[in-house]
Amino acid sequence: VQLVESGGGLVQPGASLRLSCAASGLPSDYYAIGWFRQAPGKGREGISCISSSDGGIWYADSMKDSMKGRFTVSRDNAKNTLYLLMNDLKPEDTAVYYCAANDLYNPCRSGNVGDWYMGLWGKGTLVTVSS
Q1: How many distinct helices (H) and strands (E) make up the chain?
Q2: What's the pLDDT at 13?
Q3: Which backbone phi and psi does 14 adopt, to 5 degrees?
Q4: Are strands 17-24 and 57-59 parallel, antiparallel or unpaired?
Q5: Residue 67, pLDDT above cutoff 90
Q6: Which of 13, 48, 88, 123 would you call most buried, defined as having the most Cβ atoms within 10 angstroms of its Cβ?
Q7: Are the CB atoms for 68 and 7 separated by under 8 Å?
Q8: 3-class SS letters over 14-35
């Protein structure tokens, strides 16, 4: 199984980026996939959890204020690719962004990140927001 993130880079505040996560080797009936991030010196944060079976998308309750509609998740099943569109980026969005998946069960049942167990992780893509 491979999860490969791409699309990160150095951008100025207010810019937009679209991150991609190309998934290969996942069973067709994998249960969930999601986006997480880890800022320098901080713990990992959940952003979004997507149920494979019904396409349901949960955004983290803990990040709703900071995201304020700036982040949107989508996926292209034909390409086995997950996307994270980030608008109006702020310096506090600087982090390594990770894609992760769960091929055992579906943890995406609420916006409670504590429930979002993922056993498969990509290596991440760095997003730096700075002027």
Answers
A1: 1, 11
A2: 97
A3: 95, -10
A4: unpaired
A5: no
A6: 48
A7: no
A8: CCCEEEEEEEECCCCCCCEEEE
